[in-house]
Amino acid sequence: MDSSPTTLFDSYEQDFKQFIETIREKLEGDKDQDGEQRKAALRRAEMELDEADEMVSQMDIEIQGIPQSLRPQYQTRLRSAKSELARYKKMSKDLNASLARSSLLGSSRAGAGYSSSDDPYGNSSDRSRLLAGNALLEDGTKRLQDSQRLALETESQGTDILMNLRTQREQIENSRNTLDVANNSISRASNTLTSMIRRMYQQRAVTAAIIGILVILIIIVVWSKLS
C-alpha cells in the first residue's frame, strides 16, 4: 500500500474528477428532454455536486499533511477544483431557475384556457406544480441534511486532529523533559569523573613522594653503614 502523504489527496481528486464528468454530462446533456426528465437529471446532478463538494473538503483536509516543499502545486490543484465546482454549481442553479421559469410560463399559458371541472384538486397543471413544489422541498430538505451531516463530520475530524496535535505536543514536552534530566545526569557524571581523575593524580604524586623519601632514606642508611 502506498504510504505517500499525497496518496489520499490524489485519490479524492480522482473521485472528484469522476463526479464532475458525470455532472457535466447531466448539465450539458440533451436539451430536448421533457420537463420531468430534465428535472430528474438536474436533481441527480445536484446530489453529485454535493458528493463532489465533499471530495473537495477532504482534499482541503489532506493538503495539511503534505510536506511544505510539495504543497504549492497541490494548493493550485485544489483551487482549480474549487473553481470548477463553483462553476458547475452556478450552472446548476441557473438551469434550475430557467426550468422553473419555463414551467411557470407554461402553466400561465395553460391557465388562460382554464375550464371548470369537478376535480377537487383543480386542473392538472396545478397538481403538477404542487407535486413539483413538494419534490423541490424534499430535495432542499435532503441537501440541508447532507450539509449538516458533512458539517458534523468535518467538526468531528477537526476535533480528532486537535486531540492528536495535543497528544503529540505532550509527547514532545515529555521527551524534552527526559532529555533535560539525562543532560543533568551526564553533567553530574562528568564532574564526578573529573574529581576522581584529579584525586588519582594527587594519590600518584603522594605515592611518588613517599617512594622518593624511602629511596633517600635507604641511600642514607647504606652510606652510613659503609662509612
TrEMBL record:
Membrane topology: Single-pass type IV membrane protein
SUPFAM superfamilies: SNARE fusion complex, t-snare proteins
Domain called T-SNARE coiled-coil homology: residue spans: 129-196
Pfam families the record matches: V-SNARE, V-SNARE_C
InterPro entries: SNARE, T_SNARE_dom, v-SNARE_N_sf, Vesicle_trsprt_v-SNARE_N
Any GO CC annotation of this UniProt entry: late endosome membrane
Coiled-coil regions, chain positions: 42-98
Sequence similarity: Belongs to the VTI1 family.
Protein name: Vesicle transport v-snare protein vti1
Lineage: Eukaryota, Fungi, Dikarya, Basidiomycota, Agaricomycotina
